[in-house]
Write a structure and sequence with these properties.
Largest sheet: 7 strands, parallel
CATH superfamily of one domain: NAD(P)-binding Rossmann-like Domain
Oligomer: single chain
Radius of gyration: 19 Å
CATH topology of one domain: Rossmann fold
CATH architecture of one domain: 3-Layer(aba) Sandwich
Order of helices and strands: EHEHEHEHEEHEEHEEHEHEHHEHH
Length: 300
């Protein structure tokens, strides 16, 4: 099942969240294997002593990578679906995963965007998904396709709907430092967030307590308006905050992804990860998370 009897985590898309989990499991003796979309990224992982393979979603992986997948006991899917094309892992490797009988846990990283716009109301895992944009719709299709592997073939699939991810090098502190931070005001708008280390903690807790077919919201305790986060980051850095601008005034300049975030307004409940998985968030809100990031950066 694994090399030298070490358990193996195989990650499709070894990015920010997958690396946080990989680093945790490596300390427990796991062999970590990951894919990247281009040769340069694959080589950068190998320089870090991580087994890495090329997978860009346009063709199946090489035979050596597929052999490692066949030996994996844990699989993480972090690669996003392509709009109009579908999930790349399912398209090229569904049969490999179904036939890898040693898989004890498979996690699929989705998004809270599958709930759509709820006008600021609370949602939990029992809320019917109703995505409003193409990205959310593609995610929901992918979720259902992965759950079909559980229902039809017994693959131990778990769905994790992630809120806005932040962490080292990717936070409001960094956008303030590099001058790209904006305080965009859209009255009543709130977002849920999650620190990348807490994502890893949730995934690790699920691995310890698998429940195939389960869906989990992964977010912190306090949804908050976006301008509040930037204001607090500026306070921590002791700099003047950028001016508040109306959403309508800047919407044409935002990326399609940013506009999709502002098109949806909801508060996401994280009760299930606490009650079922016993997770205690290290960073229960953005204030705790940003303070910790600043302190960690100061100690370097």
């Amino acid at each position: 099942m694994t090399t030298n009897d070490h358990p193996m985590l195989f990650c499709f898309g070894y990015g920010f969240s997958a690396a946080a989990l990989g680093e945790r499991l490596a300390t427990r003796g796991f062999r970590i294997v990951g894919t990247r979309r281009d040769s340069a990224s694959v080589e950068s992982l190998r320089l870090k002593k991580i087994v890495a393979y090329l997978f860009d979603g346009t063709a199946p992986m090489a035979a050596e990578a597929r052999a490692d997948l066949a030996r994996a006991c844990h699989v993480l899917i972090s690669a996003p679906p392509a709009i109009g094309i579908g999930d790349p892992v399912l398209r090229h490797h569904a049969d490999d995963i179904v036939n890898a009988r040693g898989i004890r846990w498979l996690g699929y990283l989705s998004t809270t965007g599958v709930y759509g716009d709820k006008g600021g109301a609370w949602v939990d895992e029992s809320t019917p998904p109703l995505p409003s944009g193409e990205r959310g719709q593609a995610r929901l299709v992918a979720e259902n396709a992965w759950l079909d592997l559980w229902r039809k073939h017994g693959v131990p699939v778990h769905i994790f709907r992630l809120a806005g991810i932040y962490g080292p090098g990717r936070s409001a502190l960094d956008s303030v430092r590099d001058g790209t931070a904006k305080r965009i005001d859209k009255p009543g708008q709130v977002f849920s967030r999650i620190h990348v280390d807490d994502i890893a903690a949730v995934l690790e807790a699920s691995i310890a307590r698998p429940r195939p077919g389960a869906i989990y919201n992964v977010c912190d305790d306090k949804p908050a308006p976006p301008p509040d986060v930037i204001t607090f980051a500026c306070e921590l850095l002791k700099v003047a905050p950028p001016p508040v601008v109306a959403y309508e005034a800047v919407a044409p300049t935002l990326s399609p992804m940013a506009r999709s975030f502002y098109a949806e307004n909801k508060r996401v409940s994280n009760a299930r990860i606490k009650n079922e998985l016993g997770v205690r968030l290290r960073y229960p809100d953005y204030r705790v998370g940003l303070r910790a990031l600043l302190e960690a950066n100061t100690k370097r």
